[in-house]
Amino acid sequence: WSWEARMRSAKKALLVFDKFKGTIDSRSASECVKKGIARVDPEIDVVCFPFSDGGDGFLQALSSPLDLSLRSVQVFGPLGDLVEARYGVGKLAGSEGEKTIGVVEMAEAAGLVLVKEHLKNPLNTTTAGVGQLIRILAT
After folding, report:
1. Fewer CB within 10 Å: N-end or C-end of the chain?
2. What is the pLDDT of residues 57-98, one digit of tens each?
3. In sequence order, which ranges of 47-123 are alpha helices (DSSP H)?
4. Which residues contact 7 (CB under 8 A, 6 or more apart)?
5. In the structure, what pLDDT confidence band is assigned to residue 27 with cuts at 50, 70 and 90?
């Protein structure tokens, strides 16, 4: 068998979804489609890879592939009030040995979802909470 022939006969599916904003996160969307594929053809090898464009859902999309430990902390929200924001901490192995990594999702501390529509005004909002998250990870 040639490589091309094996690939033609292999039943594989790679599911890469971003969130469906306001309805379902990327991991849940992938799992729903995976279940549907299994009902149609259980022999298909399905791999789910959560994805994010870097906005809300970024931290969740990276938490499994990077085996992040998610932590919560109170920081200033976009309107200056305290909000609960998550960040991730994990380990990565590289040529220089294992290193601790931190992941911050800006939307956790300053996302649009945290501001009611009538209060959305860039002159009255802040990203100070994002800085607080970065400071926590840097110390």
Report:
1. C
2. 889 888 888 899 999 999 999 999 999 999 999 998 888 888
3. 58-63, 106-110
4. none
5. confident
